[in-house]
Design a protein that fits this description.
The complex is a heterodimer of chains A (about 250) and B (about 250). Chain A is about 85% helix and about 0% strand. By secondary structure, chain A is mainly alpha-helical. Chain A has one domain: MetI-like (MetI-like fold). In chain A, helix 6 packs antiparallel against helix 8, helix 7 runs antiparallel to helix 8 and helix 8 packs antiparallel against helix 10. The longest helix of chain A has about 40 residues. Chain B is an alpha/beta fold and about 250 residues long. The chains are: A mainly alpha (about 250), B alpha/beta (about 250). The complex binds adenosine-5'-diphosphate and magnesium ion.
Chain lengths: ~250, ~250
């Protein structure tokens, strides 16, 4: 509990410092309408929240992230488990994962728009795309990292193949899966902004784009700060989940 | 009839860098209820012998019979206690680790926890049931491994230097408890070690191996001393010296 408070306090000071540095840089260093200090950005943010505009963009982006992320995880976890567990599957699918993971989701925006239009489908596709390979790779690596003695011990306790998988390999891999999901979530934030910048009717990326178009510098900064805070909060939530699921029995997590 | 027969067992590892003969012409019969220690220098092939008997690795020469049947893979009739702590399940607490084999056998949660509790107390871990492996000391983890293997009620226990990584005091305590547990459960034990004193303290027979490559059984020394063993007694010293002479020739070949 004391640790928790100390961490929270540390974060609060860290964030405060960030805003102070920003303020100093804007007021004393740059002197430009193109780099507003935190205060006007803050008030502009409040206005946007009062009008319900900011929430709308946040919800639009987060909904896409969540849908694509869940889709990508639902497909990626079993594929990663299969690749890690069965050599023939690995030999068959590794060219796929090794090929696609070097084509970033950002590069796929054009085809996604051609295939699915500028609606929800293309964004969900891109998020799922960016999620699935990260999760496949970390899950498969997790299966490969299961200590040989864990499997052998189960075998001399009478485990059959299914029990080896479900009661040993799977729980031993869980921390890797969760870590992969956390990385994929960070990637999803990058991808959604890029996708919405290029082709969208709403979302934080669209907000950035419109603000640039109409030279609303404060709006740009509101969107940026919102992204940073959302990403930070999501990542924290993930870390807590990892701690709750995996760290309980493994203090090194 | 002997419980286990190793007949002319050999193991040659074949890899890219050529082949390596780890064990050559190894023959030994284990009687029901005996405590046999296998003693040898590092790298002489002790683990390899145990792995073949456990069924983790196939033999490349000879055969291994358990109750007259050739060993074909690992099974619940041979419980194994591993040298490291990797084999414990980090996500399960001490009690559920011990109950793992019972769970595999389909025993209900309540019944298996009750039975596991018995073995938890047998290895002296009463009160630690809720702790996870990461929260336990090295000695406690080895106790859990022993309890976990015993709870599945195997025909025999195979132990690969289970106390090798422990400090001297913990090791001596665990040796004493293992002796007591062995007397209580009447399990057949094959216990691997490179520690002469440990072998003489625990075994009814000590098998001494030649050094590698191609380690084989050099001699088998019976230890007819009463339990609990007095390490400073004349009888103990005499056996110690006898085994020491055998192993000394392997450490310092002329
Ligand atoms: N999988 C393997 N492949 C090749 N050589 C091995 C393998 N396992 C063990 N060896 C070699 O066999 C010899 C005996 O090893 P081991 O049985 O582990 O010895 P120890 O008596 O110390 O337990 C060693 O020289 C070791 O390097
Ligand atoms: Mg060894």
């Amino acid at each position: 509990m004391k640790d928790r408070l100390a961490t929270l306090g540390g974060f609060a000071v860290g964030f405060a410092l960030l805003f102070v540095v920003w303020h100093l840089a804007a007021v004393y260093l740059v002197h430009s309408v193109l780099f507003p200090p935190p205060a006007p950005v803050f008030w502009r943010g409040l206005d946007l929240i009062e009008d319900g505009i900011l929430q709308e963009q946040v919800v639009a982006s987060l909904r896409r992230i969540l849908q694509g992320f869940l889709l990508g995880s639902a497909a990626g976890i079993p594929l990663g488990l299969a690749i890690g567990s069965f050599r023939p599957v690995r030999v068959l699918l590794e060219p796929w994962t090794e090929f696609f993971r070097f084509i970033p989701a950002v590069a796929m925006i054009t085809v996604a728009v051609i295939w699915f239009g500028i609606g929800e489908e293309s964004k969900v596709f891109l998020i799922a795309y960016t999620t699935i390979f990260v999760i496949i790779i970390s899950t498969a690596a997790g299966v490969g990292a299961v200590a040989k003695d864990k499997l052998r011990a189960a075998q001399c306790l009478g485990a059959n193949r299914w029990q080896l998988f479900s009661l040993v390999a799977l729980p031993a891999t869980l921390p890797f899966i969760l870590t992969g999901m956390r990385l994929a979530m960070a990637n999803s934030f990058v991808t959604i902004v890029a996708a919405e910048l290029v082709a969208s009717n709403d979302g934080l990326g669209k907000m950035l784009w419109d603000a640039r178009l109409f030279m609303q510098v404060e709006d740009i900064f509101v969107a940026l700060v919102t992204l940073g805070l959302l990403g930070f909060a999501t990542d924290r939530a993930f870390r807590l989940a990892i701690r709750a699921f995996a760290g309980r029995f493994n203090p090194t997590m | 009839m002997a419980l286990v027969r190793l007949e002319g067992v050999g193991k040659t590892f074949r890899g890219k860098g050529g082949s390596w003969e780890a064990v050559r012409d190894f023959s030994l019969a284990l009687e029901e209820g005996e405590f046999c220690c296998l003693l040898g220098t590092s790298g002489c092939g002790k683990t390899t012998v145990l792995n073949m008997l456990a069924g983790f690795e196939p033999v490349t020469a000879g055969r291994i019979l358990l109750d007259g049947q050739p060993v074909a893979g690992p099974g619940a009739d041979r419980g194994v206690v591993f040298q490291g702590h990797d084999s414990l399940y980090d996500w399960l607490n001490a009690l559920d680790n011990i109950a793992f084999g019972l769970r595999l056998a389909g025993m209900g949660k309540r019944a298996r926890r009750e039975k596991a509790g018995h073995f938890l107390r047998l290895v002296g871990l009463a009160g630690q049931e809720g702790k996870h492996p990461a929260e336990l000391s090295g000695g406690m983890k080895q106790r859990i491994q022993i309890a976990r293997a015993l709870a599945a009620d195997p025909r025999m226990l195979l132990m690969d230097e289970p106390f090798g990584a422990l400090d001297a005091m913990t090791r001596a305590a665990l040796q004493g408890e293992l002796s007591r547990i062995w007397a209580e459960t009447k399990k057949t034990v094959l216990f691997i070690t490179h520690d002469i004193e440990e072998a003489v303290a625990l075994a009814t027979r000590v098998g001494v191996m030649t050094r590698g490559p191609g380690g084989t059984l050099k001699a088998v020394v019976p230890v007819d001393l009463p339990f609990p063993r007095e390490r400073t007694s004349d009888g103990f010293m005499a056996v110690f010296r006898q085994v020491h002479a055998l192993i000394h020739a392997e450490i310092h070949p002329q």
